[in-house]
Specification:
This protein is of the alpha+beta class. About 25% of the residues lie in helices and about 40% in strands. Strands 3-4-5-9-8-7-6 form a 7-stranded antiparallel β-sheet, sandwiched between helices. The radius of gyration is 15 Å and the shape is globular. It starts with a helix and ends with a strand.
Length: about 180
């Protein structure tokens, strides 16, 4: 199980090859960008900026990509049935820390999304390349978590460091648009 989670973390956070370099908290004046509503999982909907294109990624996970950024929505059972969004976000941040060579600029942000608590872990990660063979991979992540009925819903937004500020507007909008459909 740990191997599967490890490979999913790598796939979700490195395949898009993107992240950011922002030290400001969640924008209180959220700017809106034109978006399209998608349903990446059976019972949820999310608004993705129109400049992103839907693709089938590795492991059959829908990925929304543009040049230097991506948004992926996944879900998994929480570790304990009574886990809340804070506990799950803490667990996930530890998994990222164990996966990547370096984690920095870590911010934890809480807010409400359609009546549910949401936690965002925003951080920069580095995977060191092999000397002379491969460059380091440096990305910025904006990962939102919502927990309901023993299931964690994860909205993973990743961007290159130089473009994070620009992409963060769409990332925030996507996370805030998360909703369950009946």
């Amino acid at each position: 199980m740990k191997k599967i989670i490890f490979f999913l973390l790598i796939a979700i956070l490195t395949i898009p090859l993107f992240a950011c370099d922002n030290k400001n908290n969640f924008s209180s004046n959220l700017q809106l960008v034109e978006a399209i509503t998608y349903s990446p999982l059976e019972n949820i909907a999310i608004d993705i900026p129109t400049e992103y294109k839907e693709e089938m990624g590795n492991y059959g996970i829908l990925t929304y990509k543009k040049n230097n950024a991506s948004i992926i929505v996944t879900s998994e059972p929480t570790k304990k049935t009574d886990d809340d969004v804070a506990a799950y976000g803490h667990y996930a941040l530890k998994q990222y820390s164990d996966t990547f060579d370096k984690l920095s600029d870590i911010e934890e942000i809480y807010f409400e999304v359609n009546g549910l608590q949401c936690k965002v872990n925003q951080f920069k990660y580095i995977i060191y390349g092999e000397a002379g063979e491969m460059d380091d991979i440096e990305r910025y992540c904006y990962v939102g978590y919502i927990v309901k009925d023993g299931t964690a819903y994860i909205i993973s937004c990743v961007s290159t460091v130089p473009t994070f500020e620009y992409n963060k507007i769409g990332f925030e909008q996507a996370v805030k648009s998360f909703r369950f459909i009946d």
